[in-house]
Q: What sequence folds into this?
């Protein structure tokens, strides 16, 4: 099967879940071609990206070569049936997203068409129901091939119901990785048969069972030992790291702890400044973006994982964070916030602790509770580990995506 994949940027260091899925589709015998709407400004592939045979074709409108491709595509397409269909879609899309976004989506689809005349896909697959799906719609018109998309988090939370309804109506099938996004998509569309929940999962061979360790059994308040806390994610408001720092500053002074943060992001230095103002900077380590192999080591050295996600001022929030799944795979006791998607994995006091988003006092109490109870940490971590290893294997999610795309390519999907 030939699959044309559309993503926002590539490679994005933090989006290993997309690269991992594409690697799985390639290993299933498919020919995958990736088109990125723009080049990520801090592009740095990790080991998962390097395992992917397909490179990326960039559809930026700032490239002279792409502008020439756009011109050639217009000259070739302007009298054909596909062009008439694309213009009709453009009128509809303009009403929903505005003329600039609609014209940009069509232009990028035309560039893709001209640059891939030798490649006729069996199906088009967009990651993100926002602009990548918008471009995929036009690509579908130009080559008369069905398209599907995968919706995640911000692309769902910040889109209007009309845009979501339009995307679902145009797609053959729509996948999403968390129940909250599925709920919003169902509320926006009555075509429920097209909507499917498929958790990304993780590579359980890469995140294999950790070797036996005594770190979780040593008393955290033992003066000879320091409680190790880890938080992972880009330094953006929805991750709630500012709330985590406030919570850490509220812990008893005689509790010896250290925080390790892994992840880049535009607000990392602001968070370090906040830690300085709170008087806890010397207890924190800021690693920046790290490869998954090094991250695995950090999980295994930690006692507690904290996912302090919240809803930011734009309405954006996490789906089910892959780093939370990774941490649980290592038997690490986790504290997370009661966002609906996070409860797909964490059940309060069964396999983790849940606190209200944006509440540093409750978060501090949860950290202190686990700090003084190694047996509870061990029990919660073991339960979370069992759940992840039974229900969050990326091999199963890739197989589901592959079978869905194959059914659509074979004409068995609800094609539009």
A:
């Amino acid at each position: 099967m030939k699959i044309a994949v559309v993503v926002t940027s590539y490679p994005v260091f933090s989006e290993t879940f997309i690269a991992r899925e594409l690697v799985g589709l390639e290993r299933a015998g498919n020919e995958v071609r990736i088109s990125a709407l723009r080049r990520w400004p801090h592009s740095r592939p990790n080991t998962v990206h390097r395992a992917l045979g397909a490179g990326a074709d960039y559809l930026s409108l700032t490239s002279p070569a792409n502008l020439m491709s756009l011109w050639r595509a217009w000259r070739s397409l302007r009298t054909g049936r596909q062009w008439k269909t694309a213009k009709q879609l453009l009128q509809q899309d303009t009403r929903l997203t505005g003329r600039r976004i609609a014209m940009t989506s069509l232009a990028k689809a035309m560039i893709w068409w001209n640059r891939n005349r030798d490649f006729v896909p069996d199906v088009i697959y967009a990651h993100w129901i926002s602009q990548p799906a918008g471009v995929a719609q036009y690509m579908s018109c130009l080559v008369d091939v069905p398209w599907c998309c995968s919706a995640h988090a911000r692309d769902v939370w910040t889109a209007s119901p009309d845009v979501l309804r339009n995307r679902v109506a145009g797609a053959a099938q729509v996948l999403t990785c968390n129940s909250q996004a599925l709920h919003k998509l169902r509320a926006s569309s009555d075509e429920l048969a097209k909507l499917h929940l498929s958790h990304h999962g993780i590579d359980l061979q890469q995140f294999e069972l950790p070797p036996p360790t005594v770190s979780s059994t040593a008393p955290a308040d033992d003066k000879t030992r320091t409680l190790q806390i880890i938080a992972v994610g880009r330094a953006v408001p929805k991750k709630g790291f500012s709330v985590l720092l406030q919570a850490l500053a509220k812990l008893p002074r005689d509790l010896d702890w250290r925080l390790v943060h892994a992840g880049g992001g535009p607000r990392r230095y602001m968070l370090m400044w906040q830690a300085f103002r709170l008087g806890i900077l010397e207890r924190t380590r800021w690693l920046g973006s790290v490869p998954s192999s090094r991250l695995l080591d950090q999980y295994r050295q930690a006692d507690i994982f904290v996912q302090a996600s919240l809803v930011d001022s734009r309405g954006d929030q996490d789906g089910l964070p892959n780093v939370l799944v990774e941490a649980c795979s290592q038997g690490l006791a986790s504290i997370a916030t009661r966002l609906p998607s996070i409860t797909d994995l964490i059940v309060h006091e069964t396999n983790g602790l849940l606190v209200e988003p944006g509440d540093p006092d409750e978060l501090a109490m949860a950290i202190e509770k686990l700090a003084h109870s190694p047996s509870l940490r061990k029990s919660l971590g073991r339960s979370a580990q069992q759940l992840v290893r039974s229900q969050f294997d990326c091999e199963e999610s890739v197989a589901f995506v592959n079978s869905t795309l194959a059914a659509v390519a074979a004409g068995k999907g609800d094609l539009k």
Summary: The chain is about 45% helix and 15% strand. Confidence is low (pLDDT under 50) at residues 214-221. The CA atoms of residues 78 and 84 lie 8 Å apart.
